[in-house]
Write a structure and sequence with these properties.
Layout lengths: L2 H6 L4 H27 L7 H22 L9 H18 L3 H18 L8 H19 L5 H4 L5 E2 L6 H23 L2 H11 L1 H6 L4 H27 L1 E2 L1 H4 L2 H14 L5 H18 L3 H18 L4 H7 L6
Antiparallel strand pairs: 1-2
Helix pairs in contact: 2-8, 3-8, 3-11, 3-13, 3-14, 4-5, 4-6, 4-11, 5-11, 8-11, 9-11, 13-14, 14-15
């Protein structure tokens, strides 16, 4: 069996086409994005803003994996982000683990949390979304409990000054974004991704067609949690000082969902466009004119939902542009 057939899960010309698309998307999307963020710190002085772009692109793609491809919208997605941040931090504080090892531990904590929350898939639609949000808030209450100060530092915040290294943590964040984009590119061009889309459209029909809905849905859920956990861990490493409310803020979920929806779900380019345009707009206009920003921003989102419910990618596709 060739490398191409292993990628697509079958032998034949269709598999060859899919493997060519994967390579093309890696070269034309992943490589330029990673190269741009690798070069920009030497040109643009606002290092923190560039880092936030990377984190939001990663989170938006994580939402893309579970919502764009599978159709499950997790309002509590920030719970995995916060779990990754605290998993990283507690490894550094209590076990004096090196940052890269602690980053792996933070991701593992997020995946374990996702496994514990798999019973939520018994719910659907808004019930799943709200229950997921409740779970994230419950985790926040646990880590911010004053009685757990000796373990989690309670509500008094985390300080990781001993491992503070913005240059290395920025590079790690960029590597995480690259891996996330590679995963989404694979989903966009593989039978596994097509199976997830079938589950999104109609899980009953997908099961009747021979798709193991439960297994594939859980795999997508765990991958999405892994992405958020890695993003949370590298965020904790970069900022080094934060409070529980910071890394469990629902704003992370809201922004990630909005960015993904604005650009276009179940695509590779959509979440990238969403972050680049909306977060770029926020930094260009929102900070200098906050009194008008909320009104403009809200009108922009409402206009998109009304006229482009499938995101900007759908508009480009109407113009005959093939957007991956």
């Amino acid at each position: 069996m060739t490398f191409a057939s292993r990628i697509c899960g079958q032998v034949g010309s269709e598999c060859q086409i899919r493997s060519i698309r994967i390579v093309r998307h890696l070269l034309l999307i992943l490589l330029p994005v990673v190269a741009a963020f690798a070069v920009l710190p030497s040109i643009y002085s606002n290092h923190l803003m560039l880092f936030n772009f990377i984190v939001f692109m990663t989170l938006a793609q994580g939402i893309n994996v579970i919502y764009g491809f599978t159709g499950y919208l997790p309002f509590g997605y920030v719970g995995f982000f916060g779990a990754g941040a605290y998993g990283f931090s507690l490894m550094v504080i209590h076990l004096h683990a090196p940052p890269l090892l602690a980053l792996s531990a933070g991701a593992a904590v997020a995946v374990v949390l996702a496994l514990l929350l798999t019973p939520l898939f018994r719910l659907s639609g808004a019930y799943f979304s709200i229950a997921n949000l409740a779970a994230a808030l419950a985790v926040l209450q646990v880590v911010s409990n004053p009685n757990l100060e000796d373990i989690t530092k309670g509500p008094y915040g985390i300080s990781l000054s001993g491992v503070f290294n913005p240059t290395l943590s920025y590079a790690a964040a960029l590597a995480i974004l690259a891996l996330t984009l590679a995963l989404v590119i694979y989903l966009r061009n593989s039978h596994f991704g097509m199976a997830l889309k079938a589950i999104r459209e109609d899980p009953i029909s997908a099961a009747m067609a021979g798709i193991n809905v439960v297994r594939k849905r859980i795999i997508a859920w765990l991958l999405s949690a892994l992405i958020a956990g890695l993003a949370g861990g590298v965020f904790a490493w970069y900022v080094s000082v934060f409070y529980p409310e910071t890394v469990f803020s629902v704003e992370f979920t809201i922004f990630a969902i909005v960015f993904a929806l604005f650009g276009g779900n179940a695509t590779v380019v959509g979440p990238i466009l969403g972050v680049a345009l909306l977060y770029g707009f926020y930094n260009a206009v929102g900070i200098s004119t906050p009194q008008y920003f909320q009104l403009i921003y809200g009108a922009l989102i409402m206009g998109l939902v009304l006229f482009l419910p499938n995101g900007l990618v759908s508009l480009l596709q109407r113009w005959g542009i093939d957007v991956p």
